[in-house]
Amino acid sequence: MSYLRQTLSATCRLNTRNAVFRPRPQARFNSTVNVNTSSASRRAQRAYATVSETRSRHPPRPALEEHDVETFSAPSKPRMYYARPPPSKMELPRLKNRWPVALALSVVGVSAWAAFFYIAANQERVASSITQQLLATVRDSPEVGALLGDVVRPEPVWWLNGAPWVSGAINLPAGNVDLSFRIKGHKGAGTVYFTSIRKAKGEAFQPLRFRLITDDGHTVDILPRASLI
Known about the structure:
Blueprint: H1 2-21, H2 30-57, H3 99-126, H4 129-140, H5 142-148, E1 153-154, E2 166-171, E3 176-184, E4 189-197, E5 206-214, E6 219-221
Antiparallel strand pairs: 1-3, 2-3, 3-4, 4-5, 5-6
Helix pairs in contact: 1-2
Keywords: Membrane, Transmembrane, Transmembrane helix
Region (Disordered): 33-80
Transmembrane segments: 99-121
């Protein structure tokens, strides 16, 4: 379609030129020339109108811009893209050593955990039924009453807020009980030692040691009335 339009427009232009610049013929052919000229002009106008409509529908492409191309003769080398600040002469502040503080906090934390563990284990031994039976046996012993007096009770310690301290261990599954604790009366005070073992599983515990050693050096063997365990 575009090829036909271009051919038609070229033909119309050629006819128009021939009509315009053609020498005037003789008088007898004036009517024919006028008719040909008018038809040629109409065809030219129609062709120009078609070309103008085509150009309005399809605007011309913009001209390509020419860019400057920069070429290099060698590979580029890395260079600094900012100015390096001058070195500062001011000394930096010294950081405080925090190791002593961390070490102190660690020691305090471990000490607190160990103290809690020992206090909890002591409270478990004090509340044990074995310790309560030993205290009852000591209170009923006439030898202990003669040395320590009346109102025999466990001796409290200040760092346990008045509770007694029971040393040793109670390991019934392994068949081993070894305890020691201090008692006092209105006459004096002393330390009770108790040791009992079980030779075989299913057998009864046999007391090996159950005695009181007073602060003045007297020793009393407390014979149990029956098996304490």
